[in-house]
Amino acid sequence: MIRGLLVRVSLTLTPALSLRERGKGKDIPPSTFTFDLTASGWALAAGAAFLIGLSKTGLPGIGILAVTMLAIGMGDAKVSVGAMLPLLIVGDVFAVVYWHRKAVWSIVWRIVPPAALGIIGGWLALSYMNPSLVAHVLGGIVLVLITLQLLRDCGYFSDQRIPHHWAFAWGMGGLAGFVTGISNAAGPIIIIFLLAMNLDRFRFIGTIAVYFLILNTFKVPFFAQQSIITGPSLMFNLKLAPVVLVGCVLGLFAPRFIPEKPFRWTVILLAVAAGVWLLVKG
What does pTM read for this prediction? Predict the structure, then answer.
């Protein structure tokens, strides 16, 4: 019993332990995480925050890499899901303020109800998952979504191949809600859905910005109930929020200065590597 107590204290005071080590202590509540990251952990967290900003205003799709970077940097995939949400909302608010006039509200309201139901399903699933299992699921989701992105890039999900029926909207919306409820990584699913709407670039960004602000705000009480959004996690977010804003500002100009194809492939390869790492090391 004394040995078990010492193990629990050690896990509580050392959040930089591997995902597998924390996963063995699955009875330890996420609220005990102290956010005392290593230098490399902070570097990965800052990089994730920057990518969140870029993804919200100019480079949709790269948020997948941010999900994996934060999970690896924090050493606890489940805690990282809660820690990431307020950073996403910071980026969402910036994007909505800038792009809200371009949003197509009729499309937003088509997919918000099923996504909300999906989030509730994800919240219920997350409540039964320990950090190690979350890491494995997160890695798997990332690899699946990257595959969807590559198929989309190859033209498989062209406008002609995407159905416009209401059942498709509910199916994709519910799936996106479930995935974002577990991993904050539903961007590629919504991108595929919006392809069928024939939106120009500006209406596309405005619509997706409003959609994610609504859904990410909706997730807050569920994540708080899971104790993965806490006072210490919000202080962690406060430190990284300026980095998100820098990414948002640069994201407005990024398409003009960053070669899209090399940058996109770099992000995809890094995200694949991070997803595999979570599967193996989780």
Answer: 0.76
